[in-house]
Amino acid sequence: MTNPLKYLATFKFWKELFIMTFGMLMAAAAVNYFMIPSKLVLGSITGLSIVISNIAASFGVTLKVSLVITVINAILLLLAWLLIGKEFGAKTVYTALILGPLIEFWQKVLPYEKLIEPGQTSVMGDIWFDLLAFVLIVSMSQTILFHINASTGGLDILAKIVNKYLHFDIGTSVTVAGAIICCTAFAINPFRLVVIGLIGTWVNGLAIDYFTAGMNRRKRVCIISDNHEAIREYIVDTLHRGCSMYEMAGGYKGEKKIEIQALLTKDEFAGLMEFLKKSNIHSFITAGNVSEVYGLWNDKKKKHGHNE
Q1: Main-chain dihedrals φ then ψ at residue 87, nearest 5 degrees
Q2: Rounded to an integer, what distance in angstroms lies between the CA atom of residue 54 and that of residue 65?
Q3: Contacts with 76 (C-beta within 8 Å, 6 or more apart), sequence order
Q4: What is the CA radius of gyration of the chain?
Q5: In the chain, count of helices (H) and strands (E)?
């Protein structure tokens, strides 16, 4: 991004700004309607903020959860800028700083108190339902943000700092930090609720892995055909993807064939199948799912002038 002003005028910028705002609206709704009323403390900065807010209230000091979230995130973002560097990105700055105000937005639009029925202590009326609703909504929100290389900030920032300087695995960093934050809930919650928070932290991690794997899934396609050159041209010139070609021999007749292998998105794979059908190209195809891709694959579009 050599020219920030030029980047602000691109469709990609406004599209990702909308996605980040929408994702954070989801996260803020989950916090406001399920986490705060039930006093759930999961492994997150929001959970720590709830603990601090309640401790302050016991001393007669009123601290809104949204304010505490904003302050903690601001401190973590400053540390990230100093300890990790500019590469961390403005996306996390934006998402982290709007979480608190968006919680206030939901509280003004529809206060959670209006949704709690008489005799209940939370919106769902059951701590496990509150936990499930919160985890599912927040996990989807986090997955949407991760898909565009953004995050909700907070614990993610802390985990990256720990990962860089203590060389812990990033997953281990998140788990340990989350468990520590959950344990701070002993100051305001009984043992049962703390255990529920720990379970929720674990389930949240599993849900994020599941949703992320689904969104990042690619197809590893293997094609054997006499018209391999036409297929190669379609993959390279139309889909703008690379491919590998191998000479192989059939086990039944021993005939020499060319096998093409390529990694494609689901839409690209559908386009390839449509091309083979319309072109009446006879081929033998196998395809499997790949959930993680590293290296040059994600830069292929940019090399052909398709970056925005």
Answers
A1: -65, -20
A2: 9
A3: 45, 96, 153, 154, 157, 158
A4: 24
A5: 13, 4
Tell me which amino acid residue 203 is: V
In sequence order, the 6+-apart residues with CB closer than 8 A to the CB of 13 are 7
CATH assignment of 218-303? 3.30.70.120
Contact, 142 vs 24, CB < 8 A?
no
Please report which residue ranges of the chain form alpha helices under DSSP H: 4-8, 11-30, 36-38, 45-58, 65-83, 90-109, 127-147, 155-166, 170-183, 191-215, 228-233, 266-278, 300-303
Report which of 29, 19, 17, 47 is spatially closest to residue 138, judged by C-alpha positions.
29
Alpha-carbon gap, residue 63 to 189, rounded angstroms? 18
Distances (CA, A) of 215 to 42, 125, 147, 218, 265: 24, 32, 7, 9, 10
Contact 1, 80 (CB under 8 A): no
Q: Supply 271's token pair.
A: 């386009």
Boundaries of every domain in the chain: 4-215, 218-303
Q: Give the burial class of 54: count Cβ atoms within 10 A of its Cβ; 0-12 exposed, 13-18 middle, 19 or more buried.
A: middle
Helix (H) or strand (E) holding 285: strand 284-290
What residue type is assigned to position 241 of the chain?
R
Alpha helices in 167-241 (DSSP H): 170-183, 191-215, 228-233
Q: Is 215 exposed, middle or buried (0-12, 13-18, 19+ CB in 10 A)?
A: exposed
pLDDT (tens, 9 = 90+) of the chain, 308 residues, equals 456 566 667 787 888 889 999 999 999 999 889 888 887 767 777 778 888 888 888 888 888 888 888 888 788 878 877 776 665 557 777 887 788 899 999 999 999 888 888 878 788 888 888 888 888 898 888 888 877 767 777 777 776 777 678 776 555 666 777 778 778 778 777 787 778 878 877 777 777 767 766 666 788 999 998 899 999 999 999 988 889 999 988 788 888 889 999 999 888 899 999 999 999 998 899 998 876 666 665 555 544 544 44
The single-letter code of the amino acid at 113 is E
Helix (H, G, I), strand (E, B), or coil: what is residue 106? helix
Q: 187 is written with which tokens?
A: 């100051």
